[in-house]
């Protein structure tokens, strides 16, 4: 477990939370058994399709950027992963957002996981499978410096403390990357 110490942020990263064989198996099931959707998103008054596929599982509807995702019933593999992460970290979660980056053209823009329902200082556990992509982190009030972490197959990143109120994160485009990446961010909706 590697700890990243940044002012007002608490991040820990485990590169091989799942060994390669287990990660391969999880990746295959997620790719084929998750109900992936291509959702629209409104940007500057215009509606576009998101540059990735998504799925939302859990006990609550999820609203962000004017979009509400109705929760799907938990898939048994997602529950298993959730339990493994809860046992390893000591934190509890009740929902997961899945993002599928079909290739390097898919990306996630700068944002924080600071939706109202998550409460103050939410803990986010982020599991990655498939192709490694760059995860970038920057302070809200200083965009000149970026921290970079390659999130690899079978890895687990936990963002805690005040990370979401002081920092934004993104997955930039990587035009030469052809492989698929699946990311799961486990969250705890505060209304539970
Ligand atoms: O794909 C990732 O690693 C980041 C996902 C993310 O930023 C999110 O779900 O809010």
Provide a descriptive summary of the structure in words.
The chain is α+β, with helices and mostly antiparallel strands. The protein has a single domain, classed as Jelly Rolls. The protein has 3 helices and 15 strands. The chain has helices spanning 20-33, 76-89, 163-166; strands at 2-6, 9-14, 40-43, 46-49, 53-58, 62-64, 67-69, 95-101, 108-111, 124-130, 133-139, 142-151, 155-160, 167-171, 181-187. A 7-stranded antiparallel sheet has the order 1-2-13-10-15-8-5. The chain has a 4-stranded antiparallel sheet with strand order 9-14-11-12. The chain has a two-stranded antiparallel sheet with strand order 3-4. Strand 11 (133-139) and strand 12 (142-151) form a beta hairpin. It binds 2-oxoglutaric acid (AKG).
Tell me the layout of helices and strands:
Elements: E1 2-6, E2 9-14, H1 20-33, E3 40-43, E4 46-49, E5 53-58, E6 62-64, E7 67-69, H2 76-89, E8 95-101, E9 108-111, E10 124-130, E11 133-139, E12 142-151, E13 155-160, H3 163-166, E14 167-171, E15 181-187
Antiparallel strand pairs: 1-2, 2-13, 3-4, 5-8, 6-7, 8-15, 9-14, 10-13, 10-15, 11-12, 11-14
This protein binds 2-oxoglutaric acid.
């Amino acid at each position: 477990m590697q700890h990243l110490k940044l002012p007002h942020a608490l991040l820990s990263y485990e590169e091989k939370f799942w060994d390669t064989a287990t990660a391969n198996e999880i990746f295959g099931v997620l790719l084929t058994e998750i109900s992936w959707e291509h959702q629209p998103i409104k940007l500057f008054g215009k509606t576009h399709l998101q540059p990735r596929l998504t799925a939302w599982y859990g006990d609550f509807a999820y609203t962000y950027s004017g979009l509400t995702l109705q929760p799907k019933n938990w898939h048994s593999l997602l529950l298993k992963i959730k339990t493994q992460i809860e046992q390893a970290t000591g934190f509890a979660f009740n929902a997961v957002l899945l993002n599928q980056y079909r290739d390097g053209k898919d990306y996630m823009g700068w944002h924080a996981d600071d939706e109202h329902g998550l409460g103050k200082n939410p803990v986010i556990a982020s599991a990655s499978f498939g192709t490694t992509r760059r995860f970038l982190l920057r302070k809200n009030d200083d965009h000149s410096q970026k921290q970079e972490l390659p999130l690899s197959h079978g890895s687990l990143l936990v963002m805690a403390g005040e990370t979401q109120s002081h920092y934004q994160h993104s997955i930039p485009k990587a035009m030469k990357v052809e492989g698929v990446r699946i990311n799961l961010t486990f969250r705890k909706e505060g209304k539970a």
